[in-house]
Amino acid sequence: MFARLPQYDAAHAVLWSELKPEKWLATGNQTELWRGLHKDEVVAIKLMNYVPHMDDTRAHDFLHEINILRRLNHPNVLGFMGACTRPGERFAIVTEFMDGGSVHALRTTYTEAGQPFPEAMLVGIALDVVRGMEYLHQNNIIHRDLKAANLLYNINGLVKVADFGVAREVVSTGSMTAETGTYRWMAPEVIAHKPYDAKADVYSFGVLLWELITGEVPYADVSPMQAAIGVVQRGMRPVIPGTCPAYINELLRECWKTNSKARPSMNGISALFERRMAELGGPAACKAAPAVR
């Protein structure tokens, strides 16, 4: 099984002995996320939970995430630093450490403080995400799990797309059929196991925007499965609040169209938010930051 492991150059091969996990951050699907050190540099370390014999599916997913990350290089995509893949050692993916945390946690600070989420910050986050997603799509990669919990930011307010555990490269046919992601953010064609492409990420981006605007979980009053059925069979969509700016209201409706071909591209969305950012005072006025009480 491990004969399929990719060969890394010196810049990407990491020895377990070079890593020092220091602070546990989160637990995922058979993984743990730690803040730690790699040769005295602060990094994020994603550890595979130890098992005596890694099954084929877990090994494939682990290697696939590495092979996607090592190809990416963009200011709005989480930076890959290396991987520990030697048999007999802990398996780990090492990335840059984003000292702000998740955008989901950032949004929660506004809810807890009873403050509305500033439009300027919404625009800044949205533009960073769109730029990262545009880069992924240009490189034929679909993220497939776009939501606030999978976005990270640093203390300078820069937001990056993260968590490529279910991301996939579009093959020559140009579409996929596997169901993956998180039901509440998932496009109807993905839920229904129909062919889909990068426009599935556009749908999820619309739900992400709604999540940031409202500070709520989509379809919180029903189970994830009930939400999925409603989206596919009844055309259910999140309720857009009346306070939502008109241009975002229109964008959400465009992103959530059942016909994926009628949804906008990330390029078109980027142009919209670039114009609005200029009207709001430019990048300096739109940086991501937690609420101040």
Automatic annotation (TrEMBL):
Signal peptide: none annotated. Pfam families: PK_Tyr_Ser-Thr (PF07714). Residues 19-273 form the Protein kinase domain. GO terms for molecular function: ATP binding; protein serine/threonine kinase activity. InterPro entries: Kinase-like_dom_sf, Prot_kinase_dom, Ser-Thr/Tyr_kinase_cat_dom, Ser/Thr_kinase_AS, Ser/Thr_Kinases-Pseudokinases. SUPFAM superfamilies: Protein kinase-like (PK-like). This is Protein kinase domain-containing protein. The lineage of its organism: Eukaryota, Viridiplantae, Prasinodermophyta, Prasinodermophyceae, Prasinodermales.
